[in-house]
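In the laboratory, one determines a bound structure by crystallizing the protein with its ligand and collecting diffraction data. In a computational setting the workflow is compressed into a single prediction: the sequence and the ligand go in, and a structural description comes out. We illustrate the idea with flavin-adenine dinucleotide.
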Amino acid sequence: MADVESCLAPTTGTGPQVFAAAFQFFTAAQCLLQDVPSHDDNVNDNDTFDFIVVGGGSAGSVMAARLSEIADWKILLIEAGSYAPFESKVPSLSRGLYKTVNDWQYFTEDNGVSAQGIQNGSIYWPRAKILGGCSNINGMIYIRGNTNDFKTWYDEGNRDWHPRTVLKYFKKAESMQDQHVLQDPQLNRFYGHDGPLFINTFNHTLRNYTNKILESYNEIGIKNVKDLNEANVMGSGILRATAANGRRSSTDYTYLEPVRSRKNLKIVTDTLVTKIIIDDTTKTAKGVIAEKNGTLMSFFATVEVIISAGTINTPQLLMLSGIGPKAHLESKNINCIVDSPAVGQYLQDHINIPLTIYGNETGYNNIADQHFDAIKYIYNRTGYLAQVPFTDILAFFSRNNKYPEFQAHLNIIFKNTSRITEVYKILYRYKPSLIDSIVTLNKNYALYHFLFNLLHPHSYGNITLKSSDPKEHPSININYFNDSRDLDASAHGLKMLSKIINTSYFKNIGGFLGRLDWEPCNALELDSEKYWKCIALNTATSVYHPVGTARMGLQITSSVVNSKLKVHCVNRLRVVDASVMPSLVSGNTNGPVIMIGERAADLIKTEYHIG
Ligand SMILES: Cc1cc2nc3c(=O)[nH]c(=O)nc-3n(C[C@H](O)[C@H](O)[C@H](O)COP(=O)(O)OP(=O)(O)OC[C@H]3O[C@@H](n4cnc5c(N)ncnc54)[C@H](O)[C@@H]3O)c2cc1C
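The predicted complex, in C-alpha cell form:
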C-alpha cells in the first residue's frame, strides 16, 4: 500500500488514460481467443442425412470433419454439451471446467475394497460435455503409445490395425510445430506435418526443476530420451503437447472449425441422443432420437450411424437402444434387439497412485508474479497459463526394460501452497487424514507428487445401466486390483520409482518419502512392498483413460465391434471412440483415439469406394 499516496499526485489525465486503456485492452483480451462464432445449424425433426455422428469429442470431431470431405455426403454431428468455453482454450484453466455444466461429473461405485481412502469409496471421473469432448479438458499430453500395443490388437485378429497402418494415421493427424523437432532430420521424419492436430512442446515455467528431475531419472536408469514417442515410450523426457501458440489443440478447434463453412456438415449442440433407432427385424440402424430443450426429435441416416460418445456413454447408449447383455437389458425393461454380452464389459483404466516426496527446494507462489503471467499470456501467450497445471516431464519404465509397464507424471507443489487442500479434496477426494498428512508436510517442504500409473492392468471393470432413463448416469464399476497381479506389479513399480530419493538432486535438497496417513497402512514399513500395496489399494484414483467397453474383436461373446468398428450383428452401426480399444495403450489415450478416428474415416471411405 506504499504507493497509495502517489496515486493522489496531481495528474494532467494523460497518465490515467494510458493505464486505463491498457487495462481495457487486457480485460477485453479473452475475446482474442474466440475463433469462429459458435452457432448451431438449423435442423428439423425427421431430417435425413447420410451419416449421423453421435458425440463430438476427440473421435467424433475427427469423424465429422473427415466424412464431410466428401461433398456428396450429408453429415449430422450431434453433441450433448455446448461449444467450448474460454477456459478450455487456455491450458492452465481447464480444471475450472470440472464439476460444471461442461462436465458429465461421473463417480465410480464403491466396491468396498479399493479406493477406501477416498470419500464414499467413490472416485471422481471428469468427462467433458463439450464439443471437442475430453480433448477440451485433458492434460494435453501427446503420446502415441508403444508399437506392441497395436501389434497385440492386430495379432488378436483386428487386421485393420497393424502397427504400420496405425502409424500412417497418427502421422495423418499430426501437424508438428516444434522448431527443434522440425530441424532434427530424424524427428522431422518421425512426425506428421500436414494434419490438423497441432503438436508442440510447452515452454514450461518449471524447467529449472524438471531438468533436475530428468537427471534423477537418468541416475535410476530411466534414461532420458530426446523424444518419448520416437523412443517407443520407454525412458524419460519432456512431453509433446496438443498445443499451439499457447492454446489448446482440441479436436473441435483443429478439425471442426476449419471446415465449419461446409454446407454438407450440420452441427447441433446441447442435444442428447437418447436412443439409436434400430429395426428389430432387419437389425439395421436407421437413425437416432435426440432431445433438445425438452423436445424429442428423430433424425435418420441412410448410410450409417456412428457412435462416438466415449467409453461411458457409448455402452450406455447401445444398451438403451437394445444392444447389450440380454438379461441385464430385460432387468431394466429394455427390449433386447441383439444380445451382445460384451457391451459395457472389459472396462480398463490407468490407475493413479500417489508417491509423495518432500524436500528443501526454494520456489514460492507469488500473487503479483501470477497476475503478471496473466498479462504475459495475453501479450505473447507465455507464462504459466500457457501450460497445464502439472509438469511436462514423463517417465516410462518396466521390470524387463523392453515393453513399458509403468508411467509417472509429476506435479511439483511449492512449499506452503494454499490451493493444495482444494486439489486433494475436490479432485482426488481423499479422506481427511490423507489430506492432512500431505498438507502438514507441505507447510515446510516442497512436494514432488509423482502420479504413478500401471499401464497394462489385468483387472476389468464394467459399465451397467441403473435404469432405462437416458439421463440417469450408469454405474461405473471400476474393480481396480480385482486381479492380484495388478497390485503386485504396482508395488514393484512404485519401489522402482521411489529409488529416485537416493539421487544427487534429492539428496541435495534433503528429499524424503512422505508417509500417507491412512490407518490400515500406518503400521507397515514405509516403502515396503506391503506398504505400497496398501497405499495402492486404498488411494489409487485415475488418470482418466478408460477404454474397452465396446471393444473390437472377432466374437460377439467377447467384443462389441469388428476390426472395421462395425457393431456385431447390427447393420449400418459403428462405434468410433476410446471404447473400441481392445486393450489399453502404453500412455495417454487422446492421441490414439484421434488416430482411431482417422483410421475409421478411411475405412468408411474405402467401404463406399471413395478416396
Ligand atoms: C481430465 C482428463 C485428463 C486427460 N488427460 C489426457 C492427456 O493429457 N493426454 C491424453 O492423451 N489423454 C488424456 N485424457 C484422455 C483423453 O482425453 C480421452 O481418452 C479422449 O478424449 C476420449 O475421446 P472419446 O472420443 O472417446 O470421448 P470424448 O472425448 O469424451 O467424447 C465423447 C463426446 O460425446 C458426447 N456425448 C456423450 N453421450 C452423448 C449423447 N448421448 N448424445 C450426444 N453426445 C454425447 C460427450 O459430451 C463428448 O463430447 C484425459 C481425460 C480426462 C477426462
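Residues 177 and 200 are 5 Å apart (CA to CA). Keep in mind that any predicted model is a hypothesis to be tested, not a measurement.
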